[in-house]
From TrEMBL, chain B:
Protein name per its UniProtKB record: FtsX-like permease family protein
Superkingdom of this protein's organism: Bacteria
Span of the signal peptide: none
Domain spans labelled MacB-like periplasmic core: 451-609
Gene Ontology CC annotations of this record: plasma membrane
Pfam families linked to this entry: FtsX, MacB_PCD
Transmembrane segments: 229-252, 264-290, 296-316, 328-349, 376-394, 401-426, 446-466, 667-687, 722-746, 766-785
Record organism: Antarcticimicrobium sediminis
Keywords assigned: Cell membrane, Membrane, Transmembrane, Transmembrane helix
InterPro entries: ABC3_permease_C (IPR003838), MacB_PCD (IPR025857), Membrane_comp_ABC_pdt (IPR038766)
Residue ranges of every copy of the ABC3 transporter permease C-terminal domain listed in the record: 231-355, 675-793
PANTHER family noted in UniProt: BLL1001 PROTEIN, MEMBRANE COMPONENT OF PREDICTED ABC SUPERFAMILY METABOLITE UPTAKE TRANSPORTER
Mode of membrane association: Multi-pass membrane protein
Subcellular location: Cell membrane
Length: 230, 804
């Protein structure tokens, strides 16, 4: 949690959980991916980010999750400015404040479902067995605790990924096309669960999606086009 | 169609140059160490063959006198009786600083020798010169250059046909140089004989007729040494093939999607198989050629030490230079091709049986390997049982090596399941998410790195086993030297007359003068040197007897019993209480068996008067002198001054021991070098495995990184993981290595050399090797770990990209 305790980076911004200000990003040898992007997300709020393929949605999500650095601008996450953080600070922020759900699920294949579910919470030092039991029940994973990810269907794997993300009670949940690999029925079920759990835990949700239908279910939406917020 | 398919297949290697390099390096290393050993063996055997052809009459029967040389008059008498014979006198002597084998022949009657013929072609006067007073010495070019400045020697002539360490000359000159006038060691019975001769057993009933074994003894004696080298070469070859197997397996799995596409596009499966086979063979050829070049360099570097070992251990003449033999090149390439096919067969077969619509799956590759754990464990246990059964059924050296092969391969197959069990145990004992993940993830990595760990296990076990054997041998040898070399001073006189004079002079100036006198006999068809000893406490108190009758020394000192060395006892199955015939009419009970390390031939000891009764012309030139150690330097000075003895004729106990130990240590230089090389190959196997698995690791590491671990911490955990696996492997290698040491000491040594050694344990050596293994694993893991540490986040994020 060292990153959170860095006084210089602590800025009192009670309302905004995530504040992105004029952020630009260019990968070496490529055209700019993001150009002066600004947006914010309040605590407990849900925001859908839509846009064409290659518009920079995933990149913006990664920057917001302290997974990658940016060239200019500033991102403030739970009161911490990311531009001043080193690798350890970013890692601490990811452990403590953020949780991630990806289209590919990205569970840890060598751990069981139960171990995957509690992994992030234990890593963050915030294991709450009652909450994890509750999550497990709500996600319908009670019978699957001893199985390994490869023994689950896509929908089941994504439910585990959501459970893992929320088990740590993060301030911000970042989700990148979380239902992109699922059919419509499974997709709806997963979204229902995610939105319910986000509401119950008071977590802010920043979700990247291609789907207008899913985007419509969130509090707000932003559209990214050519690296800029349209 | 073929061109397009080949282009598609080859594109994989262009995209994965490191994998290609790993494959070629594995092949090259496997071929290199195998070929190096083969080159050394071929060179040594060529030298034996050359020596055998020079000694001459290899196919002729030989007439010998049991118990020593015969007189020239005996030869003349047989010639007068009509027998066509050719006399030979042979002995070891020192010329300058060189210890040589001097072979004295009669050029007029001896069958043609390559060395003679070559010299005659070069110079018609050679024969004449050989027969004239000055004489001529024929020797190898190396020996000629070493002897050219020795004063008082007859003219020297270099000949490539003379084996190293041997000098050939006229028998008359040999008599003078060996100080053995009027003596003949053996008579060659020439093939063309007149009709109606009186049979030899009537003319000379005391002489023994036997088929010549010239060269055969050397080959037989050194067979075990070459078998040992070959076993090491095979081990290294197998370790190299582990690399090939792992790399080809991964490459084929990574190309499943491509193969599926090619087949979907209409490429027949048989054509695809042929192209992939051709690709493999081409790679094997390139790797094999690289390996041959590397093997030649290794062999050239090791051959001088091997030659020294063979000379020191067996007296076998081996030149120190290496020549390039076509058979060696063909053999090395064939091994590379066969090895590649063996290592790739499973992957190729699986690829060809893959259903057209099967999805590619790197994870599946690892999972399939994991599912094989139980089968591997059963196969491993089966191999170990087969090895034990082989020793029980086949016996001998082959049975011993079959046991070693069963033990080593069986243990290698058992390694992954045992490691999996240990990692599972570690996981159960760990609290905390990172610890749990580390154990579980390490377990999941086993299929990918298992082969490299097997290679490490084999290399470490070979190091522990051979190291324990050599160190046990050295410890035993040192103790044995202390028992055997009791006299404070050893001297060699120029001839018997001087020997007698020195003995008289020494008698009042020392505590005891112990003559060292011996003659050659034949026991059960094998040469045996019989020593005659005087009755003295030096022998009774110190001689290293392994087994004895209650009144052993009394029997021997009375000439009523004989001690035999362990080699003769085991070979002839003679033990205390048995009787041994040393010569016609000379049968003695075996009173004891003594250890006699480093001596390949049989040896026996009885009372000196008994020996002198049964052997003629026993040289009396060597003595052991008992004296207080402080007086040795002055006595050496006085002996030199009085008898004009060269420095090499007088040697004190410490000097002799250090010289013996130096020969011993030299003997195992090659073993040590091969040990280190094998360990190096195993370290390389780990490195290549980790690098090859790199592409598989990122999807496993990226989620953990995303959940809040730094790249630096992940890199440290990767390093720790490799060290953990190396630690487990090294710990498991210890019992395997000790089992190997026991087999080497209790089975292989007994069969190969005829002696059994006690086994000692050397924990400090294990600790050193353990640290070396950790260092190798740490170095191998350092490169991928550094890569991970420096990997840009954008590369890790690609794992999460939706397009994957």
């Amino acid at each position: 949690m060292a990153g959170l305790e860095m006084g210089a980076n602590l800025v009192a911004q009670e309302a905004a959980m995530l504040q992105i200000e004029d952020v630009s990003k260019t990968y070496p040898g490529a055209r700019p991916v993001l150009q002066g992007v600004s947006l914010h997300l309040d605590a407990g709020e849900t925001l859908a980010l839509t846009g064409e393929s290659g518009s920079g949605k995933s990149t913006l999500l990664h920057l917001a999750g302290a997974l990658d650095g940016f060239d200019s601008g500033e991102i403030t996450l739970a009161g911490t400015r990311l531009s001043g953080l080193d690798d350890s600070g970013r890692a601490a922020l990811r452990r403590g404040c953020v949780a991630l759900v990806f289209q590919q699920f990205n569970l840890i294949p060598s751990l069981t479902v139960a171990q995957n579910l509690s992994f992030h919470a234990r890593l963050a030092g915030r294991q709450d067995p009652a909450w994890i039991r509750d999550l497990t029940d709500r996600l319908g994973l009670g019978e699957l605790g001893a199985r390994y990810p490869e023994q689950l269907s896509g929908g089941q794997q994504q439910r585990v990924a959501i459970g893992r993300a929320l088990a740590a009670r993060p301030a911000l949940l970042l989700a990148d096309e979380p239902t992109g690999n699922l059919d419509e029925t499974a997709s709806d079920a997963v979204m229902d669960l995610m939105l319910e759990l986000v509401r119950v835990s008071g977590t802010a949700l920043f979700l990247v999606t291609h789907s207008e239908r899913i985007a419509a279910r969130l509090d707000r939406r932003a559209h990214l086009s050519g690296g800029r917020i349209a | 169609m073929i061109g397009a398919a080949l282009q598609a297949l080859a594109s994989h290697w262009r995209r994965h140059p490191l994998q290609l390099g790993t494959l070629l390096a594995g092949l090259a290393l496997a071929t290199a160490l195998w070929s190096a050993v083969q080159a050394i063996n071929a060179e040594a055997r060529a030298s034996y063959a050359r020596a055998a052809s020079q000694i001459g009459g290899a196919t002729l029967d030989v007439l010998e006198a049991p118990g020593g040389p015969m007189s020239r008059a005996r030869y003349v008498a047989l010639r007068r009786a009509g027998w066509q014979l050719s006399p030979v006198l042979e002995g070891r002597t020192r010329l300058g600083e060189e210890q040589v084998t001097l072979l004295g022949l009669d050029p007029l009657t001896h069958p043609p020798l390559p060395a003679f013929e070559a010299a005659m072609q070069a110079d018609q006067a050679t024969l004449a010169q050989m027969l004239t007073q000055g004489g001529l010495l024929l020797a190898s070019p190396e020996l000629v250059s070493a002897l050219k400045d020795v004063p008082g020697l007859p003219p020297l002539r270099a000949s490539d046909s003379v084996p190293p360490g041997m000098v050939i000359t006229d028998i008359g000159l040999a008599e003078r140089l060996l100080a053995r006038p009027d003596q003949i060691d053996r008579l060659l019975i020439l093939p063309q004989q007149p009709m109606q001769l009186t049979p030899l057993d009537q003319l000379a009933p005391d002489l023994q007729r036997r088929a010549s074994r010239a060269g055969a003894d050397t080959a037989r004696l050194t067979d075990s040494f070459h078998l040992n080298l070959t076993a090491f070469g095979l081990l290294s070859f197998a370790v190299g093939l582990f690399i090939v197997h792992g790399t080809v397996g991964l490459a084929f799995e990574q190309r499943r999607a491509m193969v599926r596409t090619l087949r979907a596009l209409g490429l027949p499966v048989w054509l695809l198989a042929a192209l992939m086979l051709a690709e493999l063979l081409a790679l094997a050829l390139v790797g094999g050629l690289l390996g041959l070049g590397l093997g030649y360099l290794v062999a050239a570097a090791l051959l001088p030490d091997v030659a020294a070992t063979l000379r020191g251990l067996y007296g076998a003449p081996v030149a120190g230079g290496l020549s390039l033999r076509p058979s060696w090149i063909v053999g090395g390439l064939a091994m590379a091709l066969i090895g590649t096919l063996a290592a790739s067969a499973q992957a190729l077969w699986r690829m060809l049986r893959m259903p057209l619509l099967a999805a590619p799956g790197l994870q599946a590759w690892a999972q399939r390997a994991a599912q094989g754990d139980r089968r591997m464990a059963l196969a491993g246990l089966g191999l170990i049982a087969a090895g034990i059964a082989a020793l029980a059924l086949i016996k001998g050296l082959i049975g011993g090596f079959a046991l070693i092969a069963g033990l080593m391969l069986g243990a290698a197959l058992l390694l992954p399941p045992v490691l999996a069990a240990l990692l599972g145990l570690g996981r159960h004992l760990t609290r905390g998410p990172l610890g749990e993940w580390l154990w579980a993830d390490t377990r999941a990595q086993l299929p990918g790195i298992g082969l490299a760990l097997m290679a490490l296990l084999l290399a470490l076990a070979a190091n522990i086993g051979v190291g324990t054997m050599v160190s046990s041998f050295r410890l035993t040898f040192t103790g044995w030297l202390d028992q055997r070399l009791v006299s404070e001073l050893y001297l060699t006189a120029r001839d018997d007359a001087q020997g007698a004079e020195i003995a008289r002079w020494l008698a009042p100036r020392s505590d005891a003068v112990l003559p060292i006198r011996a003659a050659e006999f034949t026991v059960q068809g094998n040469p045996v040197t019989v020593y005659g000893v005087v009755d003295h406490p030096t022998y009774r108190d110190n001689w290293p007897l392994l087994d004895r009758t209650p009144d052993a020394w009394a029997q021997v000192n009375a000439g009523q019993g004989v001690f035999i060395n362990e080699q003769l006892a085991r070979r002839a199955d003679l033990w205390p209480g048995d009787v041994v015939q040393l010569a016609p009419g000379w049968v003695l009970p075996v009173a004891g068996v003594y250890s006699d390390y480093g001596n390949p031939t049989g040896q026996a000891i009885t009372a000196l008067p008994a020996l002198l009764t049964h052997a003629r012309a026993v040289p009396n030139r060597r003595f052991g002198v008992r004296i207080v150690p402080e007086a040795v330097p002055d006595l050496i000075e006085a002996l030199r001054a009085k008898f004009d003895l060269p420095a090499s004729a007088l040697i004190d106990q410490a000097g002799l021991k250090s010289r013996s130990l130096a020969v011993f240590d030299k003997t195992f230089v090659v073993t040590g070098a091969l040990n280190l090389l094998t360990l190096g190959v195993a370290g390389f196997a780990i490195l290549t495995s980790l690098l090859t698995l790199w592409s598989l690791r990122l999807p496993q590491l990226a989620p953990v990184w995303a959940l809040g671990l730094t790249r630096g911490r992940l890199a440290r955990l990767e390093l720790a993981r490799s060290l953990l696996l190396a630690t487990f492997t090294a710990l498991l290698a210890l019992p395997l290595g000790l089992a190997l040491a026991w087999v080497l000491l209790a089975v292989i040594n007994v069969q190969a050399f005829g002696w059994r050694l006690p086994m000692y344990l050397f924990p400090l050596d294990w600790l050193r090797l353990f640290l070396l293994a950790l260092l190798a694993a740490g170095l191998a893991a350092a490169l991928p770990a550094r890569r991970l540490y420096r990997l840009p986040p954008s590369e890790l994020l690609k794992v999460f990209a939706n397009a994957r």
